[in-house]
Structure formats: C-alpha cells, structure tokens
Amino acid sequence: MINNKIYVLSAKQISIQNPLSEDWMTTPIEYTEPFVRSIDPNFKEYVSPIEARRMGKILKRALATSKEAIKASQLDVVDAIITGTGFGCIENTEFFLDALCKEGEQLLKPTYFMQSTHNTISSLVAIQMKNHGYNATYAHKGISFDSALQDAWLQLRLGKIDSALVGGHDEMTPSFFTILQKGEVFGKQVTLTGEAAVSVVLGNKADNALCRLSGFKMLYKPTLEDLKANVNLMLHSAGLSEVDAVLTGINGDEACDQAYLEETRALFGEKPILRYKHLFGESFTASGLAFYVGAHCLNAGFIPSQLFVSQQNISVEKPKNILLFNRSDGKDYTITLIEK
Amino acid sequence: MAEPILITGAGVVSAIGLGKQATLDSLLSNRSGVGKLAYLKTDHKEFPVGEVKFTNAEMRAMLGIPEGTVSTRTSLMGMLALKEALDEARLTQEMLPKVGFISGTTVGGMDMSEQFYLDYIGNEAHKEYISVHDCGSCSEMTADHFGKFAFATTLSTACSSAANAIILGANMIRCGEADIVVVGGSECITKFHLNGFNSLMILDQQPCRPFDATRNGLNLGEGAAYLVLETAESARRRGVEGLAQLSGYGNACDAFHQTASSPDGEGAYRAMKDALDMAGLDATAIDYVNAHGTGTPNNDASESQALKRVFGSVVPPVSSTKPFTGHTTSASGSIEAVFCILALQHGFLPVNLNWSQPIEDGIVPVSQSTEKELTHVLCNAFGFGGNDSSFILSKSVI
After folding, report:
1. Complex ipTM, two decimals?
2. Partner of A276 at 20 to 30 A CA spacing, among A179, B7, B355, B395?
3. Among B208, B327, B340, B376, the one annotated catalytic
C-alpha cells in the first residue's frame, strides 16, 4: 500500500540571506556582486571549537541546519539521513587537488582527502547524531537536493521509514567560482552565485507541519508534452485543477531564462510566476532553497512581493499550494507539489 | 515480503575483462586482473592495481566516439558496460524514454580535472572539461550515448554508490515510478584517490589478501557495471527473461568514523539483517556471500564480526572477489552483483584469491574452486563514512 500523506515538518537554511531565519520574507538582503558567500551563524552551539577547527564550512553549516531542523520538527530521531550535494566538500577537494598538482605525489596529507568525498556530509551528521538509519548522498547537478527529496518521498510512501532528514549542501570558494565561470557551468551570465545549506524534515504525521508534500516527479530532457502530461497527472492525483503559484529557478542568464519562462507560461498559463535565486543566488543545491521558500510561504500564508517575476501581479491571497518547477541546465527537470 | 524485481540485463567491464563471458572465464580460471600499473600516469608505480585494459582512445574507438570528443574515463567505461546491459535486456533507443537511469560514482570527471587543473587556474586551455568534473555530468554523458532516458540521477556514497543505485532503482519500481530502471556505477582510478588512499596508508604494495592474517591493505581497481531492473509484468509483456531477481536490500549507517569501520560492524550487520528481513529469508537460506572484503586490516575484521552476528556459528561460504579486480570503489556494488549473477547462473563459488592464513576470530573464505548449486546470494558494499549496503540476489523463479 502506498501512503501519500507526507508532510514537511521543518525547513532551515544558511545562505546569503540571514541564517536560520525567515527575515528574507520581510527584509531581504540585496546584492550587486556576482558571487557572495553565506552569512554564517555562530557555530559554537552546534559543534565544539576543537571539532570545528578541522571541519570545512560545508560541514559546520550542515550540522547547524540539521540540528535546527530536527529540533523544529519535534522529533527525537529521524529514520533516514539523505543529502544532495552537487560538488560535495569542494574546499577540501580543491586543497588536495591543488597540492597534488603543484607539489606532486609525495607529501600529501590525509586530512583534506578524508573530508573531500560527497558523502562526508551525511556521514558526519549520522556520526554526530549516532544515527544508524538509512543514509545516502546524491550528486547530480541542479537536481541534487531534489534527488535526495525523491529518495525520502519514495521510502515514506512505501512505509520503509516514518521520517527523514533531507539536506541540500554546496559551498563555493572564490577560486572554484572562477573555474566554474570559465567553464560556464551555471550559464553564461548568471546574476548572482551563492552557497546553500538547507535541511528539511519530512514525516508521515501532520502535527505542526509547515505543509504537505503532495507530488514529485523527476524528468530528463522532457518535451513540453511530457511536462504537460506529468503536471496534469500530478495535479489530478492531488485533486487539484490548478495551482496558486509556480516557483521557478530563473537566475538572470537571459537566454536560458527566456526559454524557462516560455515553458513555464506554456504549462501554467497566467498563474503567478515566482523566483528566488535573485535573493539566494545560484548553486547546484539552490533548489533546496526553493523547497524551503515554498514551504515557508505556505506556512506563513503569504508570498512576499519580491518573489513575483512580474510586478503587475503580486498578490496571491493565502496560497493553498505552490508548484516548484526546477529546470536545470535545460535538461534536468523536477516538478514538486506542496500544499497547505 | 515485497514483490521481487527481475534483472533482465547486465553488463560489466573491469580488470578481468569486458563483458560477462570474459568475466566468467576469468572467475572460473582464477585469473586476476591486478598487476603492475600501466595506464594511469602517476609516480606511485609501487602499488599493484586492477586497471581496465584499454586506453581512453581505444574505448572511444570501440564505442564509435570521434577522437577529440569531451569524455571522461568513468563515462567511457560506463558506456561499455551499459551497452551490454541494454543489449541483453533488448532495450532499444526508442524504448529509453520510458526507462530510468541511476548511476553511482564519486570521482566523476576527476581524471580530467587532475590533468588540467593547472590550466583551469592559469589559462584558457581545456576549459571544456570543467563542466564534466561533477558526478552527475559523467552519468549523463554515459546515458546520452544511447538515447534519452526518462530520468537520470547519481548516487555518491563512496564505495557503496552502485549498491545504493540498485536500492533506489528498486524503490522507484516498487512505488510505481517506472517499470524499468537501469542501475549501477562506474569509477576510474585517479591520482586523486590513489594518493588519498595512500595518505591514509591503506594501500598494499603486494596483491591484496582479504580475510588473511597477513593482509595489509587494498589494491585499487576500476570498472563499471549496470543492471536492468524490471517488474515481472513488464518482462513478461516484453518477452525477456530474468537472469536473477533482487529479493531484498538494506542500507544502514555505521555512524562510527569517516574512514574506519566499527569493531563490531554495526552498520554492516544492520544492512545485511534488513536485506534478509525484506526478502523474508532466514539467514540459513543464504548459499554464498560476496563480501566487501577490501583487504584492509580494519574492514575485514569488522566485516567478519558482522557476518558472525548475522549468521551465528554457521557462516555460509564467503569470498571477496577484490583480488580479481582490485577495489573498484563506487562501481564495486554493481560489478560484484554481476559476479553474483554469474555464480547463480553457472553454479559456482568465486574464489577468494591470495588467501592462506585465517584471521584470529575472523571468517574463513572460499579458497578452492567449488561447484555449488546456488539459490540465494548476499552481496555487501560498504563505503567511507559507514555507508553500508547489502542486497540479496536469487535464482530467477519467474
């Protein structure tokens, strides 16, 4: 039997907006620089100074958002820890690679290597929480977080787990940002690149939930017809005829944004189109922030005006549902439906 | 007990050959592919490795990919294995839009990044390789060679990546998200992780000796393998046979240390136990265990304890096939799944090569070629960070 009552119990973030807070809903920080690093909270509450010295930023942020998300979910333990990360612990990877390429193969120390793999994040959270449950890590470009979300969603529906901590974590160093720009990895002219640390707790009990997760679909290079069919099926399964708003990941790269918006309009007509990357920046796990933004809008009962793409239509009274429409690199797609 | 999922195609490439026939021949004749380093350009010639015996250019030629096309060794090996799996399951390009693709890798395009990193930070040369550094891009490159899959994603849980791809694929099928999902993994040897493992002092300068008292580390290997997972109904409809079935699986976290396993093998124990529970099988039903058995002092001691906790005093025949291939890291779960399928189909126990002296309180592995009718086999894949996964493959009954 498939259980379709899956809830989002909490969602926490550390990003280029104020950390571990929803200040961005009323007083967003605006940036003009092309690349900004996250605003970090004081990590002392989450990790001892001795441990913190050996940890990269991505790990400290993951511990902080994970601990806050679990606290807010009011669960004592979670049954699964699942992380999405496009590049993994890139700062340590760079340190090791840099030493390898510049100093050769004789004097390399294990410290950076030990914390360079993608699954270091999920493992560290499990070690700190002494959690022996299901543990996995996804690394698939702009749908890394979405892949982790899907894994949790499948297992909750199958009844294999009752709760899951799902994370989306990517860090960005100035040197790696320069390399990515040279490779046009996020596109040619992305307005703002940031970092992302998001932790959400999913469960099968509705108490104190921010919202409900009603549908998820991952697609690769779909045609518009494929997209239409999947959106219609998802809405139909949820008993909906239309959505209140669509949250997109347009990022300022004009050529891509134009195609993205055209596709969005072809699918959703005149429904209000929202964006979030102008506030949070681009990263491989930015879509985790989209999930966080959508969940908090439904919970707060309003959509901040700065999220609307068109300033002519900036009011959705008490939104009951939001569809998260992630289109990454023009080929990796996810559709996620969340409802009040 | 869940509805079993069939495996209707399998493809493999590793140090012991390209394709299932060459692999079977090597396994049956105890011919190891581990030897002197020949393909990777590194100073560390002292370590034996299990390399795939083709250059990238040779693989491109075999696949009909023009010279000069951006490709990584991980994706090229992936294509060789994926081709065999798709062909066997009779999945044509026209059918792929209904088929999912889930791959496991950790190094991704690091083989190119470590060659061109100084260019990346210094000039404009080779910048077309920057966008294939990440894991997901390598998976997509592998998949795109054959057509357009319905969806594509990538697991990266170090040495259990491919095993976890198998688990995700099965969960997607059980949830009704797809009838057919191709799962597996690919990983080439890089200087990055050869040096990383060396810095952790877990590489042996001799051929690795899993479960032996004198074991002193692992040999790195490389390769790729993919399995086609399919519902019984879909296989019947398409008229394809199951090579084996996936009866159960488990994933647990050791939650002990980033690069070491716990003395009592808690994560490994839980993963195996969950796989048995899901399959609805008693431990005594398992006829053979393909162990993770890396040959490091830590893994083999820990895995021995976990096996004893699961199976009690009657541990079934166990072997590590890593002396054949080296440790193929992210791909090991699916490569060893193919070995298990061959063992089920041909009725034999793969030998744990290079073994002579038992570990005190450890398990005694299969050391002689043995014919044996097998019904259920269990396969382990454990990763750094305690990412432990196990799955059970059974003789296909449908």
Report:
1. 0.98
2. A179
3. B327
